[in-house]
Amino acid sequence: MMTTVIQSHLKTVLEGNGVKTAVLLRAIQTRYGDKAISQPTLYKVVNGENGMPDARTVEQVMHALVDVTGKTFALGEVFTWKPDREARP
User: What 3-state class would DSSP assign to 17?
Assistant: First the structure.
């Protein structure tokens, strides 16, 4: 059975827009309060360590990106879905 992994390009998107991860985290915490994803979760996504972020994480990141950049990003600009065997070196 083939599995799918999600590759994060969030670090590149943040750097390209001059946004620090801490600023994105604050935007997530402001928007979602007690329901916000945790700091370790966000840093794993930014560093590409979270092979399959859940829908809640993806949603919070995408909304907070709009808050901190004023731009709306296509999902494919931030995350890429690939079959496991293509994503692994």
Answer: coil
